[in-house]
Design brief:
It is built from 1 helix and 7 strands, in the order H-E-E-E-E-E-E-E. It is mostly beta strands. The strands form 2 sheets. The chain has a 4-stranded antiparallel beta sheet, with no helix packed on it. A 3-stranded antiparallel beta sheet has the order 3-4-5, with no helix packed on it.
């Protein structure tokens, strides 16, 4: 008996479908909805992001800040050198490729304000709350001739 199709990642979905041909783009799109799940906690003075990256090493993960957007990228490469003469894959669900996710943290936050740690497949990023400074309106005088 198969599990009802309401479960998105049923092991037997398309199992015997002859039209099923895995490709890198299919693998990325099929599994990307489960990548980089993020929990965000709010504290009085900061936000804490817990980003799930199971199976990634610290070296595979990078973070950057540009124009107020914090972008987290993770990349995993397949090891094509390992070959098994006893069988072949008929379905491969392990993600191979690159994924990224961006969060708007504000243009007042600098690279030095953000802290990150990677432990047991969880990237924890701490972003301080920085209050936006009100803009002081300047008078622009027009020269009168």
């Amino acid at each position: 008996m198969l599990v009802p199709s309401i479960f998105a990642n049923d092991l037997f979905d398309n199992f015997f479908n002859d039209a099923y041909k895995p490709s890198e783009s299919f693998v990325h799109s099929a599994n990307s909805r489960n990548l980089m799940n993020t929990d965000i906690k709010e504290y009085e003075d900061k936000y804490e992001l817990g980003i799930e990256l199971p199976g990634y090493a610290k070296e595979d993960v990078s973070a950057s800040l540009k124009e107020g957007y914090l972008t987290i990228e993770a990349e995993r490469h397949a090891d094509n050198e390992i070959k098994d003469n006893n069988g072949k894959y008929i379905r491969k669900e392990c993600f191979t490729g690159k994924c990224q996710r961006s969060f708007y943290v504000g243009e007042q936050v600098t690279q030095n304000d953000i802290r990150a740690a990677f432990n047991n497949g969880i990237l924890t990023v701490t972003v301080p709350k920085i209050k936006e400074q009100p803009k002081v309106e300047e008078n622009h005088f027009i020269a009168i001739e």
